Amino acid sequence: MKKVTSFVCQECGYDSPSWLGKCPECGMWNTLREISNVIRRSPNQMSNARSGQRRTSIEPKRLDQIKFENKQRLLTGFSEFDGVLGGGIVRGSVILLAGDPGVGKSTLLLQLALNIARGPAAPFPPASARSSLASSNELRAVGSLSTRVTPRNSVLYISGEESEEQIKLRAERLKVYSKDLNVLVLSATNTDLVVDVIQKSKPSLAIIDSVQTMESENVSGLSGSVGQVRYSAFQFIKIAKTQAIPIIIVGHVTKEGMVAGPMVLSHMVDTLLFLEGEKFTRTRILRSLKSRFGPVDEVGIFTMKENGMQEVNAPEQLFLTDNTDKEVSGSIITITMEGTRAFLIEIQALVIPSKLPIPRRVATGIDYKRLELLLAVIQKHCGILLSGMDIFVNITEGIKLSDPGADLGICLAIISSYKNISLSQKVAIGEVGLLGELRKVSFLEKRIKEAKKLGFKDIITIDRFKTLKEAFSSLKT
Asked: 25 Cβ partners below 8 Å, 6+ apart?
């Protein structure tokens, strides 16, 4: 038995043999905490070490000798969620779902659990059969899992943040809860106990909400510390791989929007999902940041309503308003790419004379520095004096736009508001350079096709104009 002391950064997980005031990895101050680890060696290991013997050797295999079978995927009942995962949840995979507080992670996962427990190919039994099964298959807390055999479509929901009564209350609020759904609920924070429950119940899916609340007596430190998070994640991954049980782990985020805990947590899991959206808007975007069994450029679109998360039937038109058919200035349509899907976005701009010594520049949904750059290009190459104007730019529905293909739309919306020119039924696609030139963006043909499919014919792109000044001149005629 050997005791090893190290200092671990609570922000990024950097391991140092001595204490440091500033973490050399993430640059944060006073984040290194002392952690004592005890290394125990079994009698066999000690005898082998004394005799110099090695363990049983292993041999690598040629690539053509490895047997591969397409793993069966578990459908979640949400086509948007399945699309982000590449067709569903793979057996034995570990998924980390992160997002800001209050964005709807727990609500989405509880709906997902209810959908899986219902089963896509297993309809509800008749009322007579349900009355006899309600007492045995009712949504309940896990009390005697050691003596209970769960059927195939069973979901184990483990919460370390909420009580069982709170989860039951949310399930009834969703209005999709039925007594014959086999969803097992457990409120616990002991990692070793949770792993034991998963191993005994053998559910079709296990949900851990959240990993920052789990702790074990085998590791020093409070719940949420680097050691506890690392130990819990390793135990959950181990049970998922050995028992072929998919596990979804909920993770907290830091104030910078990154997954809280050590960075190794993101590397350990198979899939990293991020649910983003503003608290006061209904739109929620599920984005894949890492996936070993599917694409990493797909997104899922949901809306938050009173009865939970709902998929968007026509996401291409979600970010449009009624202003597209009105003769108003300062509004234009652009098309952005989220993964491999094209979405129509309305950009609104307001330009008014300023009474302040330093005019205001307010950007909602786009980078403020990008707005400053585009304003400089407009003033330089279009001859429009904007230095004495208050300028406000907003992307509707609270979406954050980082696609450079929206540059032309932002510029034309600002010019439209300044000149009081209506741009209704116009679509602008293109990146604007510092010299005022228009640049071709990725998937331009797909964007144009999507705009035409929705009835837009006047599309301003690099195929029609080579510079921003040419596009501006066409608006005056």
From this structure: 9, 12, 14
Strand ordering across the sheet containing 299-305: 140-141, 183-187, 155-159, 205-209, 247-251, 94-99, 271-276, 283-291, 299-305, 308-311
What CA–CA distance (Å, rounded) separates 167 from 413? 46
Amino acid, res. 18: S
State the Cα angle at 115 between 111 and 116, rounded to 5°.
120
Over the stretch 321-351, which tens digit does the pLDDT of each residue have? Answer: 666 566 789 999 999 988 778 888 899 999 9
Burial of 470 (0-12, 13-18, 19+ CB in 10 A): middle
Is the separation of the CB atoms in 251 and 212 below 8 Å?
yes
Taking 3-state DSSP, the helix, strand and coil percentages for the chain, each rounded to the nearest 5, stand at 30, 25, 40
**Tokens standing for residue 180:** 């014959």
Cβ partners under 8 Å of residue 355, min gap 6? none
pLDDT digit string (tens) for 114-157? 999 887 543 333 333 333 333 334 343 443 333 343 445 799 99
Q: What is the pLDDT of residues 156-173, one digit of tens each?
A: 999 999 999 999 988 888
Task: Specify whether the CB–CB gap between 462 and 440 falls below 8 A.
Answer: yes
Q: Which of 293, 193, 199 is nearest to 243 (CA)?
A: 199
Three-class SS string for 224-288? Answer: CCHHHHHHHHHHHHHHHHHHCCCEEEEECECCCCCECCCCHHHHHCCEEEEEECCCCCCEEEEEE
Q: Which two tokens stand for residue 182?
A: 């086999």
| Adjacency order of strands within the sheet including 15-16 | 15-16, 2-9, 32-39
What angle, rounded to 10 degrees, do the helices at 468-476 and 407-419 form? 40
Judged by average pLDDT, the poorest of 173-177, 360-364, 470-474 is: 173-177
For residue 413, the SS3 value is helix
* Predicted structure pTM score: 0.75
Q: Are 409 and 343 in contact (CB under 8 A)?
A: no
Q: Give the three-state DSSP class for 362.
A: strand
Q: Is the peptide bond before 210 cis (omega within 30 degrees of 0)?
A: yes
Does residue 414 carry a pLDDT above 70?
A: yes
